[in-house]
Amino acid sequence: MEYVEKAVVSRQQNPKIFLSGSIRGGRQLLETYRLMYDTLEETGAEVLCWHVADPELEKTEMGMTEEEIYSRDMGLLVKSDALIAEVTVPSTGVGYEICRALVKEIPVLCLHRPEAIVSAMVLGNPDPLIEVRTYPNEASLKQMIIDFVKAL
Amino acid sequence: MEYVEKAVVSRQQNPKIFLSGSIRGGRQLLETYRLMYDTLEETGAEVLCWHVADPELEKTEMGMTEEEIYSRDMGLLVKSDALIAEVTVPSTGVGYEICRALVKEIPVLCLHRPEAIVSAMVLGNPDPLIEVRTYPNEASLKQMIIDFVKAL
User: Fold this and answer.
1) d(C-alpha B140, C-alpha B134), whole Å
2) Percent of chain A beyond pLDDT 70?
3) Can you spell out the DSSP letters for B44-107?
4) Interface of B with A in 35-54 (CB under 8 A)
5) Chain B, nearest residue to A119 by Cα
6) Is residue B115 within 8 angstroms of chain A, CB to CB?
């Protein structure tokens, strides 16, 4: 039953989503990344880059080389149907991933809090594949994610 | 005389350099960006994206739309022979610009302080066009920039 419910959310069955958020730029929004991850799971999406929402991430990555982390993340991006980035916390990695997703020509949804000071490379980006939205609260954040996945 | 001195620094006469640093991610390293800008000017390079080192930048950009800022920066990147990024302060814009420079296949030099927590998208990037270096002090920062411009 659960599977049936999930499958109707997106036109594309179980789209693969790359979830992008700050790791070394700061983990202060970890709870938000977890909410985004949970929402994506609820829609039936397959979250390929789930580790951004993993509170144990630092421990896991301590055993990996920088090259292994890069290679894991870019390997997942190549397989993704879309990217969702939380851009409230400035992050060099998130900016890099947004660019790579646009180069790969997949839809990108950038979400941020109203008080965030967001890069002009995001806010002023004319690429029709990128959509930037401000979420005033958790309920609207969830809804924006559901709407985006639905339209894939 | 000054022109002759400058011209011998780089094999490529007056290479155009895109200088990338944090703007909205935080301006705490503005003095460093200014030093990088001055060093580049001394080598005879043409700094196309000089505004990152401009203390009045916020004022100038207040009169521009997000699209105008994006369009100015990406227009300059297209004309650049290389990109030099200071990656100590996490910045979504810097990450985006690094990616765009690599897609355009121009050399990228990423510089950071020893204590910086730098993204794996930079540190683990296997692209042969990207070089990442740690500078312990201002003298070494200057020398790294001079060496990079020389090799262009």
Assistant:
1) 9
2) 93
3) T-EESSGGGG-TTHHHHHHTS-HHHHHHHHHHHHHH-SEEEEE-SS--HHHHHHHHHHHHTT--
4) none
5) B93
6) no
- Round to whole Å and give the CA distance between B117 and A81: 30
Is the complex ipTM higher than 0.95? no
Test B68 with A95 for CB contact under 8 angstroms. Answer: no
Cα-to-chain-centroid distance, residue A9: 18
The two three-digit tokens of residue B124, written as one number:
């683990």
pLDDT value for B7: 45
Q: Do B91 and A95 touch (CB under 8 A)?
A: yes
The pLDDT of residue B77: 97
d(CA B27, CA B22): 6
CA dihedral of residues B35, B20, B105, B75 (deg, nearest 10): -120
Q: How confident is the model at residue A9 (pLDDT cuts 50, 70, 90)?
A: low
Q: What's the gap in Å between the CA of B147 and the closest CA on chain A?
A: 25
Which residues of B fall within a CB distance of 8 Å from A118?
A: 24, 92
Give the span between the Cα atoms of A31 and B25, in whole angstroms.
21
Give the pTM. Answer: 0.92
**Which pair of tokens denotes residue B32?**
């460093």
In contact, B45 and B10? CB cutoff 8 Å: yes
Tell if the CB–CB gap between B121 and A92 is shorter than 8 Å.
Answer: yes
How close B99 gets to chain A, by Cα (Å)? 5
Gyration radius of chain B over CA positions: 15
Please state, rounded to an integer, the average pLDDT across all residues of chain A.
Answer: 92
| Model confidence at B104: pLDDT above 80 | yes
Among B22, B26, B121, beta carbon nearest to A93? B121
